[in-house]
Amino acid sequence: TSAQIGVTGLAVMGRNLARNFARNGYTVAVHNRTVAKTNALVEEFGHEGSFVAAETAKEFVAALERPRRLVIMVKAGEPTDAVIQEFAPLLEPGDMIIDGGNAHFADTRRRERELRGQGIHFVGTGVSGGEEGALNGPSIMPGGSPESYESLGPMLEKISAKAADGAPCVTHVGPDGAGHFVKMVHNGIEYADMQLIGEAYQLLRDVAGYSPSQIADIFRTWNTGRLDSYLIEITAEVLSHVDAATGKPFVDVVEDRAEQKGTGRWTVQIALDLGVPVSGIAEAVFARSLSGHADLRAASRGLAGPTAQQLDEVDAAAFADRVEQALYASKIVSYTQGFHEITAGSDEYDWNIDLGAVASIWRGGCIIRAAFLDRIRAAYDTRPDLPSLLSDDTFAQEIAAAQDDWREVLVAATRQGVPTPGFSAALAYYDALRAERLPAALTQGQRDFFGAHTYRRTDREGSFHTLWGDDRSEVEA
Ligand code: NDP
Fold this sequence. Notes:
The chain has 477 residues and is an alpha/beta fold. Helices cover 55% and strands 9% of the residues. The chain is built from 20 helices and ten strands.
C-alpha cells in the first residue's frame, strides 16, 4: 500500500497529527529518528486507521505515493534542517515537505528558497491547538506555493478544526514564510490575551477582594458573553482548581514566574524591525520576563506603595463589570496591533494575506479561538482595506461604550498599586491614535536642535532646519 501522507517526528504533536490523518481515512506513513516511538505508535493506535511504519528514511520515502507529501514534526531549529538534509536527496521534483513545527518564518523563507531550486515544494505550516488540537482538529496555517495547497488543501481541511459555522480552520495563507509568520503573530496575540486575563484576575482579587473561586465564577459568566473564548474558559478551570496537597487554591501554590518558548518574543522582535507598535504584546512578553527576575523582585519588595487611607472603597460587583469592559477594550487593541503586524509583514514580503481569512481560521482549534474572531472576520469581509480594526464602526462603538469604565479601572489600579501593563499600554495606544497632536513635534524639535536632523512643517512642503546655535532663523534643508 502506498501512503497519501507521511509524518516524521513522532513526539506528542507528530503522533497526534498522524493519528488525526489516519482517523480521517488516509493511509499514513510514520517515521521517527528513534524507531521505538514509531513501533509504539502503531502498536497502541494501529487500530484507529491505516499506518505504514518505516524504520529508515528510504523506507519512509518509498512508502509515499507521488507527488510525496511528507510532514516534518520535529523540534524547531537545527533538527528541522537536519531532517530536511536527510530527506531532500531522496525526493523528486513536485514532492512536498510540510514543516509543521514552530519555525521562525525567516528560516522557512530560506528553506523554501533552497528547496525550490530542486523543484521541491516547501510548505512552512503553522499548527495551533497543542496536542489535543493536533489529534482532534488544529487550526492550520500553511504557507508555500499555491500548487502545493491544491494538493494538500483538501487533506488539511479534513483534519482541521471546524468553526461553529462548519468552515474548516485552514487556508492558504500566502507564499513561503507567510504561514509561519501568521502563526508567530497568533502566539504573540495569545501572550497578550493571557496577560490581560491575568491583570483582570489580579484586579478582581486585589481591588474588589474576590477569592479565586469567586473569580472563576465571574469568568464563567463572562464566557457566556462577548468574551466567550477558550482562554477565558480554561482560566475559570484553573482558578477553581484546589491543590490536593494543601487544600489551598491552586493559583496560590504555583510559583509566579511565567516561562516562555520564544514565539511571543519573535513577534515583538519582528514588530520592532517592521516598525509596528505592538505595545500590548510587548508588555505581555516583558511581564513574563519581569516575573522571572526573582532577585530583582526580592530586592524591590520593600519599596513604597500607595498610602492605605487614600485607597478607594469599591463596590465589588460594579467594579467587576468595569473590568469586563477594560478587558474587552484592551483585547480589541491587542488584535488591532497583531493584525497590523500581519499587514506590515504581508506588505514587506508580498504575501497578499487575506486578513478576514486569518481571523476565520483562528475561530476554531487554536489557543486564541473565540467568538470575537467572527466579528473581526466580518469587519475585514465588509472592508478588506480596513486601515485598522479600530476604524471598524462596530469596534469603534464598542470601545466608545467601554472607555469610561476602562479609564476608571486604571485609576483604581493606579491608586491601589496593582500593575496593569497590558491594560495601560492598550489605553495609551488608543489615546495616542485618536490624539489630534502628539508630542512627536517636540521630539522633532529636539532632534533638530542636537543633531540638525531637520523637520517638516504643517503649513509648507519641504524639510527645514532651525539655526539653533545662531540667530534661530529657519533654513530650507
Ligand atoms: P519536540 O519539539 O519535543 O520534538 C521532539 C521530536 O523531534 C522527536 O520526534 C525527536 O525524535 C525529534 N528530533 C529532535 N531532534 C532531532 C534530530 N536532530 N533529527 C531527527 N529528529 C529529531 O516535539 P513536539 O511534538 O512537542 O513538537 C514538535 C514540533 O511542533 C515543534 O517544532 C514544536 O515547536 C511544534 N509545536 C508544538 C506544540 C505543542 O503544543 N507541543 C504546538 C504547536 C507546534 P526522537 O524521538 O528520536 O528524539
